[in-house]
Amino acid sequence: MKHPIWAVVPYKGKVNPKQRLAEQLTPSERADLVHAMLNDVLTTLVASAVFDDILLVSRASDAETIADEYGISFYKDRSTNLPDALIDSSNWLANVHKVRTVFIIPADVPLITAEDLKQAVDQHVEVTVIPDQHQIGTNGLICTPPNAFKYVFDGKSYRPHLRAARAIGLITSELSLSSFSLDIDTYKDVFEILNSTQSTLTKSFLQKITSIRKHA
């Protein structure tokens, strides 16, 4: 990239997370799960050396401490929904830090790799949209400039993001990356993590609680 690029990671926190897993995991297990996923994502982002900086966007009580632990930047979210949080933080980056490119990465994609991050950044021009495994949601979004179009992030945003960017004449790229394909929302996703070949904190945590239940 010819100009600075920041990773932006929105984090909802541990209060009532992952409601679609409520029948299978207790509230404390779901809280530990989102924390493990966030740690996997941040560990990979920091180790990748792809970014000029990483911004954790959150209103969660533990978020600033987590950002300090990883030596990354923190933006306190004061909005009521994810798109607005990303719009506000991207505006802050553009206005305060003069950032020209943001790479939005969810906190629940624990399998991302440095190689895929580098591939995404190297091929990026103006807008790059990385879909989930069903090509319905957005599991990665690179924008130059930030907030060039309205973000959606409602679980069905892959095609809407592409249409919005193309409607205003931006150069778009659709990029399917295997390490970005899985975000954990359902019990089926849990088993995909358990069956993955990667060693992650998320997988270790899920192996631990499934083992406890087998022997309960």
Task: Tell me what you see in this structure.
With 216 residues, this protein is an alpha/beta fold. A hairpin with a 6-residue loop joins β5 and β6. It has a single domain (5-214), classed as Spore Coat Polysaccharide Biosynthesis Protein SpsA, Chain A (Alpha-Beta Complex), CATH 3.90.550. The radius of gyration is 17 Å and the shape is globular. It is built from 7 helices and 7 strands, in the order βαβαβαβαββαβαα. It has a 7-stranded mixed beta sheet with strand order 3-2-1-4-6-5-7, sandwiched between helices. α1 packs across α4.
Assigned CATH superfamily? Spore Coat Polysaccharide Biosynthesis Protein SpsA, Chain A
Structure classification? alpha/beta
Helix fraction by DSSP (H/I, runs of at least 4): 40-55%
CATH class: Alpha Beta
| Unreliable runs | none
Annotation field: number of helices: 7
Strand content: 15-25%
Query: What would the principal axes of the Cα set say about the shape?
Result: globular
What Rg is obtained from the alpha carbons, in whole angstroms? 17 Å
Largest sheet: 7 strands, mixed
CATH 2nd-level architecture: Alpha-Beta Complex
Total separate domains: 1
What string gives the helices and strands in order? EHEHEHEHEEHEHH
CATH topology, anyone?
Spore Coat Polysaccharide Biosynthesis Protein SpsA, Chain A
Number of strands: 7
Termini separation comes to 52 Å
Physical arrangement of strands within the biggest beta sheet: 3-2-1-4-6-5-7
